[in-house]
């Protein structure tokens, strides 16, 4: 009984370590995504000052995409 609890505890500790590593990876990916989003926003702002209708359409699609509510199992309802 004690040995199985010790094994369970060891597995739980390993699982916590694994989850912490996954959380860190998600944080890094989110930071990178934010950096890319900032860059795209800066580029679109510069392009939006032109009169090209293709640029206006691209800016509208981008704004529609970033302003939509997140979908999926983690999205708030």
TrEMBL record:
<dbReference type="Pfam" id="PF20537">
    <property type="entry name" value="DUF6752"/>
</dbReference>
<feature type="coiled-coil region">
    <location>
        <begin position="2"/>
        <end position="39"/>
    </location>
</feature>
<keyword id="KW-0175">Coiled coil</keyword>
<feature type="domain" description="DUF6752">
    <location>
        <begin position="12"/>
        <end position="65"/>
    </location>
</feature>
<protein>
    <submittedName>
        <fullName>Alkylation response protein AidB-like acyl-CoA dehydrogenase</fullName>
    </submittedName>
</protein>
<dbReference type="InterPro" id="IPR046640">
    <property type="entry name" value="DUF6752"/>
</dbReference>
């Amino acid at each position: 009984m004690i040995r199985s609890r010790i094994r369970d505890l060891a597995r739980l500790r390993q699982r916590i370590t694994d989850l912490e590593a996954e959380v860190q990876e998600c944080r890094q990916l989110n930071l990178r995504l934010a950096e890319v989003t900032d860059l795209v926003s800066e580029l679109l702002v510069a392009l939006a000052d032109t009169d090209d209708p293709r640029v206006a359409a691209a800016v509208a699609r981008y704004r529609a995409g970033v302003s939509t509510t997140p979908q999926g199992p983690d999205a708030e309802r």
